[in-house]
Amino acid sequence: GPVLKISRNIHNAGAQHGQDTMQQEAADPQDAQLEASEDDPEALVRTTDSSASLQVEYSVLLSPTYQVPVLYFMLRCNHQGPVGIDAVYQNLVPDQYRKELKNVGVMGGISFDYHPGSGAPTFFVHPCNTADAMRDIAGQRGITPDTYLLIWLGLVGNCVNLHMPCELFATNSMQEDTPMHRG
């Protein structure tokens, strides 16, 4: 099962997504007819839900192939279901990571597959360079599994807008300074 599972709503992106929906609806000829019948008390009135938001579910599992954690994530619009890779880059990937992430390998650093735990279609940050990146960061120091996971989440999570609270790093740093955690 997952080492870690996190779900959250992205309200900013939802408002942006909702604006796109509103623009599409305004171009619809049926909407023009609805606007003309606003005075009719029996007319069906469509309103755009301004609370439309995106929900992202992240899960972390160990890759049996690469022997490193893998970050899986599903991005959904609360009214329209799962969204595609373009919405992932627009709403989850910060500007400073987009170009680099799209240019990793043949297909980019974000891939699409079935979740190994649930079987649901999902995106994931491809783990092929994770071990090398973690070696570059951690060097030859012996680090605890907790510290490894925190470093990894900082490295991989940031590229898809998953940020860990600073307090978590401070707590982990203090624990590593205790005699029990010193080698």
UniProtKB/TrEMBL annotation:
Please state the span of the N-terminal signal peptide per the UniProt entry: none
Q: What name has this protein been given in UniProt?
A: Ubiquitin-like-conjugating enzyme ATG10
Q: Where is this region: Disordered?
A: 12-48
Task: Provide a Gene Ontology MF annotation, just one.
Answer: Atg12 conjugating enzyme activity
Source organism superkingdom:
Eukaryota
State the Pfam families in the record: Autophagy_act_C (PF03987)
Q: Which PANTHER family match?
A: UBIQUITIN-LIKE-CONJUGATING ENZYME ATG10
- Any one Gene Ontology BP term: autophagy of mitochondrion
State the GO CC annotations: cytosol
Q: Which family does it belong to?
A: Belongs to the ATG10 family.
Gene3D superfamilies associated with the record = 3.30.1460.50
Q: Which UniProt keywords apply?
A: Autophagy, Protein transport, Transferase, Transport, Ubl conjugation pathway
InterPro entries named in the record: Atg3/Atg10 (IPR007135)
According to its UniProt entry, this protein's organism is: Aspergillus wentii DTO 134E9
